[in-house]
Design a protein that fits this description.
- Chain C: Keywords: Cell membrane, Membrane, Transmembrane, Transmembrane helix, Transport.
- Chain C: It comes from Salipiger marinus.
- The complex is a heterotrimer of chains A (about 325), B (about 350) and C (about 300).
- With about 325 residues, chain A is mainly α.
- In chain A, about 75% of the residues lie in helices and about 0% in strands.
- Chain A has helices at about 5-30, 35-40, 50-55, 65-75, 90-125, 130-145, 145-160, 180-215, 220-225, 230-270, 275-285, 285-315.
- Chain A is globular, with a radius of gyration of 24 Å.
- The termini of chain A are close together.
- Chain C has one domain (about 20-60, about 75-305): MetI-like (MetI-like fold), CATH 1.10.3720.
- Chain C is globular and about 75 Å long.
- Classes of the chains: A mainly alpha (about 325), B alpha/beta (about 350), C mainly alpha (about 300).
- Chains A and C meet through α1, α6, α7, α10 and α11 of A and α7, α8, α12 and α14 of C.
Chain lengths: ~325, ~350, ~300
């Protein structure tokens, strides 16, 4: 099979996937009933007429299939609807809040990748030594440490006790630190990024170390050694390259995990990201936002999975496309 | 003054290319260390082929790696010297070793499919080695690699440079591996079972190729194998290894004509050969009964005695040492009058 | 002498064989330090859960500290882990959180195992077209933003049931969480089950069973399943840990079960007061950490014990 053919097949599958997700999410949200009624039920001052008016305004009086088609049609045109609570376009809200999420997540993955590589190489080169055992044990421990626990400890130590970093938010409320908005933003990022890095590093180190150990046992590594290439070159030029291939798949899983747990991360640090937005939307039954964020996350996951699949094929010449 | 397979004595005065003395390798450390290679002596003269023969598990592959001062995971060279071109490789640092490995001494592995990096093109992985050793530029490197591929019998050498290993056949891969070994004109090629994983017809081609490069590149070859057919075809000299020790070594002709050690005899008897007539009456090839000892639980005395028909009471207690049994021929067997190893515990 | 040792060693090697794979696995597991540490931690949590009414210094819903000492008092002799913002004794709540956590972990894995075995088993045993469909389904669930969906469903379901008889089910919220975690937690089990069933169905002893006329259910339940168990047990142990963690996160975000005493809830109620009463947040976090670590280490040890070649 050709690479393009493979990509087309994956694309078709991805489209089915997104269609499935949209139906499920839409059905779930709509099973709740009329969110306007539920939201306004607790407020006695509002007349039935006002409720009916709002229901009609949001198109909630139409049958479910019509509403799904309308919603999906709008979605395809990039229209995610309008938030019931904030009365803002959902797309606009997602991009501004989403940017804050990526601001901590992307550095969290990249720094972790660099750290994990260094630690895994150190451990794998001295397999079964004390260094190896130490790296493995701390990674194992780190992997079992819940992310929020790390966040709590970071806040307690660096924010409350040492008073170095702010414990919440992405920006200072009043004047920015040192009068610079950039420094202020960076300073706020430190703790959340540290927590995400910690969490990712543990899992990545374990994975890369076991890949490396496995690959260092291969004949081609011995052959490279027997050819007089220096150890550094063998590790970085040969073994690491091969060991990174499975890591690639894992990175897409990790990305999904991070998007999925963004609500927790952002609650710990009161970070104005898309996860925080989502939690609030769920609590307040702001259904256009719930639908929009879920779909946006699903699209991102599908795209990342698709990209890794393609990258996999391009990097590893052995992959048979069947 | 080339030594030919016919000559009996390969210039005894000149210093051998490779002189291994008392090489020992163990797995693990301390009290749980398991010795797998014990006091092995080997010599390879210039432009000579030495065949190191033994069953799987006899320690011959570990030995061949140890000759490059390499040890498979968990193994360690615990004693002895590997004198190559007058230098002891076991005493060298990584930098000095890097100037010997791949440059003066190169290796061909058993499984060509595994010994090439699957995600690098042939040109890249061979070129990297040549460029590293010679500091040649890209164009020179590509030329050199293509040139060698041509010399080992690969057609369309330039086209192959950009192919990945999995796009080549098994025999072709082994040719690439041999080309890799030849990149820097080494004095010695270690070939560890280079034909075991190949089809019979390809095996013959690879053996021919090895013979050919021995002449054209004036290299010596240390060929590790379990196949007496290969030995008969390639060897100038033979060392037979059993359970981590050499039990017989000598000129190929002498060993084949008059094998001394019962194990060598059994090996020869259990190999179908064209150059020897089978004893009348014996219809089948005899097999060697029993199995080589577990390295963690070695018997006392001669390692071969549990499987040896000639073993006596002394064989169970005393370890024989290599003793000359004729011109250019040595054996370690008490039944052949070998002396007893004194410091055998 | 040595030769006799050699022979007797070979003899014991022979008697080793008939020992079951569980006995062999256990023998290897016992020598695995991380695995044993995991088993120790898990046993500790299980013990605390079973004995919770006996160990807990106060009654589960005793908020009396609110009057006597005031809430949010630091660790003291009367309250080793302090009291929280609602006047509960933190240690008591932690102890009573253990059975909840284990119920969540086991319940989730029960649902996930049934689904995973069914889907993975059919996929691997039948193969072909069924396999294709099942594996696409698995892939679909793997790409789904599970945690996010669970949050939405728990909340929405809570609204849906209002006014229906379902509302009267005790621990409804927690049950929903467990069912959802199970519903989304089966893909790893299905993957392993598929691989194992595929491998085992063509093994000689299964062929032999088929030849002597064993029924299909007999082959599946008595021949294949028991042999697939070691690999499955590893994934299940990992799954228990991650289910406990997921419930904690759901509860931490405020979507937990108000009726249940869970570590995540404790964290939810006290996190806002982290600066004032850190112990009330650290204690439940530590409890979650210890439990998850225990199951992870246990899984690691089990995988080493059953697949000694892997490492």
């Amino acid at each position: 099979m050709l690479v393009t053919q493979f990509i087309i097949r994956r694309l078709v599958f991805s489209i089915f996937l997104l269609f499935g997700v949209s139906v499920i999410v839409f059905a779930l949200v709509n099973a709740v009933g009329n969110p306007i009624e539920i939201l306004l039920a607790e407020r006695p001052g509002i007349s039935q007429q006002a409720i009916d008016q709002m229901t009609a305004y949001y198109g909630l009086d139409q049958p479910a299939t019509t509403r799904y088609l309308m919603w999906a049609g709008n979605l395809l045109q990039g229209d995610f609807g309008t938030s019931i609570i904030y009365n803002q376009p959902v797309w606009q809200m997602m991009t501004s809040w989403g940017l804050e999420t990526l601001k901590i997540q992307v550095p969290g993955i990249l720094i972790a990748l660099a750290l994990a590589t260094a630690m895994a190489v150190t451990a794998a080169m001295r397999q079964y030594s004390r260094v190896d055992f130490g790296v493995m044990a701390s990674a194992m421990l780190g992997q079992s440490l819940p992310g929020f626990f790390v966040g709590i400890l970071l806040i307690l130590i660096f924010s409350y006790w040492l008073g170095i970093f702010p414990s919440y938010g992405a920006y200072s409320m009043r004047s920015p630190l040192w009068g610079s908005h950039l420094l202020d933003a960076l300073w706020h990022m430190v703790l959340p990024v540290a927590m995400l890095t910690f969490f990712n590093t543990a899992a990545l180190t374990l994975l890369m170390r076991s890949n490396l150990v496995d690959i260092l046992r291969h004949d081609f590594v011995t052959a490279a050694r027997a050819s007089g290439l220096p150890e550094r070159r063998i590790i970085y030029g040969h073994a690491l390259r091969n060991a990174l291939i499975p890591v690639l798949t894992y990175l897409s899983l990790l990305f999904g995990l991070m998007l999925g747990t963004a609500p927790v991360t952002e609650t710990v640090f009161t970070w104005p990201g898309v996860g925080y937005l989502y939690i609030n939307a769920i609590q307040q039954l702001d259904y256009p936002v719930i639908l929009g964020v879920t779909m946006a996350i699903a699209v991102m996951l599908v795209v990342v999975t698709l990209l890794t699949d393609i990258a996999y094929v391009l990097i590893d010449p052995r992959i048979r496309l069947d | 003054m080339l030594s030919t397979p016919v000559s009996n004595k390969p210039a005894p005065q000149s210093e051998p290319l490779l002189d291994v003395r008392g090489l020992s390798v163990s797995f693990g450390r301390g009290t749980s260390a398991v010795p797998v290679v014990m006091g092995v002596d080997l010599r390879v003269g210039r432009q000579e082929t030495l065949c190191l023969v033994g069953e799987s598990g006899s320690g011959k592959s570990v030995t061949s790696l140890a000759l490059m001062a390499l040890a498979p995971g968990g193994a360690e060279i615990t004693g002895g010297q590997v004198l190559f071109e007058g230098q002891d490789l076991t005493a060298m640092g990584p930098a000095a070793l890097g100037k010997v490995r791949g440059r003066r001494m190169a290796m061909v592995f058993q499984n060509p499919a595994h010994s090439l990096n699957p995600i690098l093109t042939v040109g890249k992985q061979l070129g990297e080695i040549y460029a590293w050793h010679t500091r040649a530029n890209r164009r020179e490197t590509r030329e050199r690699v293509a040139d060698l591929l041509r010399q080992v019998g690969i057609t369309d050498a330039h086209g192959r440079l950009d192919q990945f290993p999995h796009e080549l056949s098994g025999g072709m891969k082994q040719r690439v591996c041999i080309a890799r070994a030849l990149l820097c004109d080494p004095a010695l090629i270690l070939a560890d079972e280079p034909t075991t994983n190949l089809d019979v017809t390809i095996q013959a081609q690879i053996l021919d190729l090895l013979d050919e490069i021995k002449e054209t590149f004036r290299t010596s070859i240390l060929l590790v194998t379990h196949d007496m057919g290969v030995v008969a075809r390639m060897a100038d000299r033979i060392s037979v290894m059993y359970a981590g020790r050499i039990c017989e070594s000598g000129e190929a002709r002498a060993v084949f004509r008059d094998p001394q050690h019962p194990y060598t005899r059994a090996l020869l008897d259990s190999t179908p050969r064209i150059d020897m007539r089978y004893e009348p009456g014996a219809r089948d090839l005899p097999a060697i009964g029993g199995r080589p000892p577990n390295p963690a639980q070695r018997p006392d005395g001669c390692q071969f005695h549990p499987r040896c028909a000639e073993a006596g009471e002394d064989c169970r207690a005393l370890l024989p040492r290599m003793t000359a049994s004729g011109p250019g021929h040595a054996v370690s067997c008490l039944r052949r009058g070998s002396r007893v190893e004194e410091n055998a515990a | 002498m040595a030769s006799i040792d050699h022979i007797s060693a070979a003899g014991t090697a022979r008697t080793d064989k008939p020992r079951g794979m569980w006995a062999q696995g256990w023998a290897r597991f016992r020598r695995n330090r991380t695995g044993m540490l995991g088993l120790g931690l898990v046993s500790f949590v299980v013990l605390v859960a079973i004995l919770s009414p006996l160990i807990a210094p106060y009654a589960a819903n005793d908020q009396s500290a609110m009057m006597n000492f005031g809430s949010r008092s630091g660790p003291s002799l009367a309250h080793p882990f302090g009291t929280d913002r609602m006047g509960y004794d933190v240690l008591t709540r932690i102890v009573y959180g253990a059975p909840t956590a284990l119920a969540v972990g086991l319940g989730t894995m029960l649902v996930a195992s049934v689904l995973g075995l069914l889907i993975g088993g059919i996929s691997g045993y039948v193969g072909g077209w069924a396999d294709e469909v099942m594996m696409r389904l698995t892939e679909f669930f793997l790409v789904l933003p599970v945690f996010v969906v669970i949050l939405a469903v728990v909340r929405l379901f809570g609204v849906i049931v209002v006014g229906t008889p379902l509302e009267d089910i005790p621990y409804l919220n927690l049950t929903t969480i467990v069912l959802l975690l199970g519903l989304f937690g089966w893909p790893p089990i299905a993957r392993i089950a598929r691989a194992e069933f595929m491998r085992l169905k063509s093994m000689e002893f299964v062929e032999a069973a088929r030849c002597i006329g064993a029924t299909r259910s007999d082959i599946l339940l008595r021949h294949i399943l028991p042999n697939a168990m070691p690999s499955l047990v590893v994934v299940i142990a990992l799954g228990i840990g991650s289910a406990i963690l997921s419930e904690a996160m759901v509860s931490f975000l405020g979507f937990g079960d108000p009726e249940a005493i869970s570590w995540g809830q404790l964290l939810y109620f006290n996190y806002a007061q982290l600066k004032v009463s850190p112990w009330a947040s650290i204690a439940p976090s530590t409890a979650i950490f210890i439990t998850v670590l225990g199951f992870n280490l246990l899984a690691d040890g089990l995988s080493d014990a059953f697949n000694p070649r892997v490492k």
